Amino acid sequence: MKRHPRRIRRLRDNERGMMLVFAGLGLIAFMSASALALDVGMFMAARSQSQAAADAGALAGAVALVYDNWDDRSAAGPAVQSAIKAATNESNAVMSKPVSVLPGDVTFPAIDKVRVRVQRTAGRGNPLLPFIAPMFGVNEVDMGAVATAQAAPANAMTCVKPFTIPDRWEEHQTGAWDPEDSFDLTDDKGNPIANPDVYIPVGTPGYTGYDSQRDRGVRVTIKASNDSKLYPSFYYPFDINGETGADPYRWNIANCNTTILKPQQLITTEPGNMVGPTKQGIADLVALDPDAYWDETAQKPVSKMHPSPRVVTIPVFDPVYYYTGKMNGKNADLKVANFIGIFIEGMVGDEVVARITPVPGILNGSGPAPQGMFPKVIVLVQ
After folding, report:
1. Number of domains in the chain
2. Residue 330 has what pLDDT?
3. Quick one: pLDDT band at residue 326, thresholds 50, 70, 90?
4. For residue 306, pLDDT beyond 90
5. 219 and 357 share a domain?
């Protein structure tokens, strides 16, 4: 049967149905791109989750340095183990599976920094398994992240208690410094003495004041001042934010006054020694967490509350500023030198018995914090 040439040409030039071909090809391309987007989205989510796990590990490691053991950076030490536990916690899983963190992944690039590397890799036996990438020959994808946290010095404090003691000095009169020493720059007649005591303020090389690690666990007995001399154990009540009187003073002991104090700030003492309100305020504070106690072995407070309200912060004042001012009859306030953390054990008679312990601080305003500040701020720096 012979076909007509014109009919053959019409069949050749007929474009009916081509849209179905283009639509089919387009649908295949669209579905491939959409499927590949699932893998890209998974990778982006895994990257974000990996960073969150690394951040958690670094922060936990820095916290353990400050509050558990500043000197132990071994594989079995609290800083390394806390970092691993936090990073591998199920709440920090990456795409529903834990990351891998080995002791070697926790490093200390500086004395006050903790760096943590988390991994989901083929080398650790836990790579990501993509959905579509295997079609292109990619069966496994490695994922990881790094974070660094620092236990930085604070430059301010809030929730401080309304009494203060002198900062620690270098004792030159009676041998090594102890709570029974007095701070002496002159004799009783105001004449210079041959070997005066030395106080070097915070932020200055050789700072002599309280240190959160060296003095950790030291028991301090804080009593009302009843002498003309300056002793480490004597406390001085002061008003916070201009609130004077026994009732605000007692309330500020048992509660948190959010007024912010900074080093070098002047504070005004309350008239009298406030023994009664101090006892009442301490009793109210202890009642908030009556079962808390100090663990002699671990050198830290033990409490069901985190943190215990009996872990408090008090300012310590510059003894030289006091000595040359108040002690010589001048109209001078106390000057905040630093802050220390104490765990309130309770009252013995009219005296507050406490243990020195690390406490967190805050960063407020511009400018670096003075080196040697007792409170620390745990921050991510990378």
Report:
1. 2
2. 56
3. low
4. no
5. yes
